[in-house]
Amino acid sequence: MRPDNLPFRRLDSPLSTAALFSPQIPNRPLADLCRNLATMLDAGVPILTALRTAARNTSHPKAKAALQAIDTDLQRGEDFASSVAGREEFPPLAGEMIAVAEQTGQLPEILKHLAEHYDNLVKMRRVFIGAIAWPVFQLVAAILIIALLILILGWIAAVQGGDSIDILGWGLVGPSGAILWLTMTFGTIAVLFIGFKLVSANDAAKRKLDPILLKIPAVGGCLRSFALARFSWALALTQQTGMGLDKCLDTSLRATSNGAFAGEIPRVVAMVRSGEELPVALAATGLFPETYIQTVEVADTSGTIPETLERLSPKLEADARRSLAALVIASGVGIWLIVAAFIIFLILSLASFYIGMINDAAKGL
Fold it and tell me: In the prediction, which pLDDT does 3 show?
């Protein structure tokens, strides 16, 4: 569900190379933009003046262009929310929340909350990148070391005039073998990365992939924790705006950025509209832990859902960060095992080669 005055925005992005280069403003400048606008609007600065000031102050080209375009839209008589929702530089959540803010007269407050939300996304991304940097370095180092061994052993064989040592048993020897090895490994990584970007940009694909990922023990727990934290934050925020519960749930499930949760929007919204209680509707998805459902049930009974979820969201984010740390540690161990397996395989291959040479020499005596 969207606020009625918002223009239609297609949810399913096409699987194309354009999806690799997101037109959206990155989270860091987006958080700064929301915060600056909130500060100026809270101080009573007119919206057009605030937009022009923010456009002058931002150094990000996408943010500057988007603000200038919104300025033009407002001068033509379009409202702020519709202009934001119609621009691909802004995430759908920003457009929907700003629409709610305009309807309820809480634009500065909503912009502050959005700034905090995008700040949290920046922090989580930084934690994730910092955590996986060392395991990724180990993997790249292992690939390069193997390529170097293939190259050196090929050169040695060429100089001595003997047979080349095929350490992998794949026919990869000498310079051509090293190049082919690097092409195979880094090419596979590139294909996986491109595939991930394309799937991430397509809602239909995410709704098929994310439920599978949630079933993987370590990965699923991490993704679920992040989704629950975002859902709790968004639902707490939308509940405070006076928006209908069905629209709150629609917006909040989209805010999870998880295809499994977003895929349950029709079911949850339909159940709420038919008169089912919120805890029952959430439990029907099978995505929310029992403890979470119980917490929501107690909050629903006491009429304190926004306050409860607002307190719960930081705890869920902390759980998500712990899950992420555990996942990264497991990934590091896995990469170490792969590297160790390669080393053992190389040692055995070299030993087998030299034992064969010794046996051949012994037979010739």
Answer: 40
* Contact (Cβ atoms closer than 8 angstroms) between residue 84 and residue 102: no
Residue ranges of the chain that CATH labels 1.20.81.30:
17-119, 204-365
Which of 76 and 86 is assigned the larger pLDDT? 76
- Predicted TM-score (pTM) of this structure: 0.67
Rounded Cα distance between 1 and 35, Å, is 26
CA distance 70 to 92: 16
End-to-end CA distance of the chain: 86
Closest of 295, 266, 259, 265 to residue 279, by C-alpha = 295
Could you give the 3-state DSSP secondary structure of residue 325?
helix
**Fold classification of 204-365 (topology level):** Receptor-associated Protein (1.20.81)
Q: How confident is the model at residue 91 (pLDDT cuts 50, 70, 90)?
A: confident
The CA-based diameter of the chain, rounded to the nearest angstrom, is: 98
User: Which phi and psi (to 5°) does residue 56 adopt?
Assistant: -70, -35
> 293 is written with which tokens?
């459902």
* Residue 220 confidence (pLDDT): 87
Topology (CATH) of 17-119: Receptor-associated Protein (1.20.81)
